[in-house]
Amino acid sequence: MEKSILRVEDLRVYYETPEGVVHAVDGVTFHLREGERLGIVGESGSGKSTVALALLRLIKPPGKVVGGRVYLDSVDLLDLNEEEMRRLRLSQLALIPQGAMNALNPVLKVRDQLLLPLHDHGVQLTKAEADSLVRDLLQRVGLPSQVAELYPHELSGGMKQRVCIAIAIAMNPKVIIADEPTSALDVVVQWQIMDTLRQLQQTLGAAVIVIGHDMGLMAQTVDRIGVMYAGKLVELAPTAELLRHPLHPYTQLLIASLPSLDKRGEFQGIPGLPPSLLSPPPGCRFHPRCPKAFDRCSAEEPTLREVRPDHYVACHLW
After folding, report:
1. Is 307 helix (H, G, I), strand (E, B) or coil?
2. Cβ neighbours for 276, distance < 8 A, ≥ 6 positions apart
3. Is the distance from CB of 15 to CB of 62 less than 8 angstroms?
4. Which segments of the chain have a pLDDT < 70?
5. Count of alpha carbons within 13 angstroms of residue 149, beta-carbon side
6. Of 20, 196, 242, 264, which has the highest C-beta tally within 10 A?
7. What domains can be seen in the chain, in order of their start residue?
8. How are beta strands 4-17 and 20-33 bridged, if at all?
9. What is the pLDDT of residues 197-240, one digit of tens each?
10. Alpha helix locations (H) across the chain?
């Protein structure tokens, strides 16, 4: 069995609000293998991005990681102090943030934004070394070296996203977390960005978690897909297996809602709305919307278990 570089066990992230406690991530467990691309998909509000921020210890009040374990190799990230975690970010665990438009500093040139994180990690470079590194990083993400002297407002959306990727790979991290790396980009640029990310991941040998809601894009770029619903991971399987044999009714409906060029027909949506995470329904959180629900679904919460080789599902049907 391949070695896991990252293991997440029973991760829980709650937000205290005047109305009560929001269970944003509620008992999520998965592992990431060395050199693997893992996709995490789900509707808006399902907890995908909260998982990403929790792994990097970037949850801000009123949010709080209230339980679980996150092991990078054998180190539990939730046990580290703030300075230890700061040193580990970027050097071993890097984030490509959602919305490159807002992630870059508008008053710093691209060159400075590439070098600043290295300086923060105590990396000393001569001017010649810095010039060479900046050129190399820009080349690796498909940008010409003259981009180094530009400001973010002089770049297109796709170029800004490539700069964010260049920052993320600057210290050759073991794990890269890409939080909706193609949001707000047109379809052609989305594919280019995902292809760049795939090529970089292979040359770096890093493992990647890609978070998004575009099942079609994920299907062609990741090795395994995890499906989240209402703060829980409901299914996890190799991509081809998940698309051919989805086991959870929510995954089945998600896949059925994808447009197809092979056959004509009505667009299928998923009836109803996701539940409030302030007061989630008892039992399975999908049961109020599930066409296959039966009595046990509203009374008992299903656990994520392996029902086929490397295929996990949280559903009483299995």
Report:
1. strand
2. none
3. yes
4. 1-2, 100, 259-268
5. 3
6. 242
7. 4-260+268-274+281-313 (3.40.50.300)
8. antiparallel
9. 888 888 888 999 999 888 888 888 899 999 999 999 999 999 99
10. 48-55, 82-88, 100-103, 110-120, 127-140, 157-168, 187-204, 215-219, 239-244, 249-256, 295-299
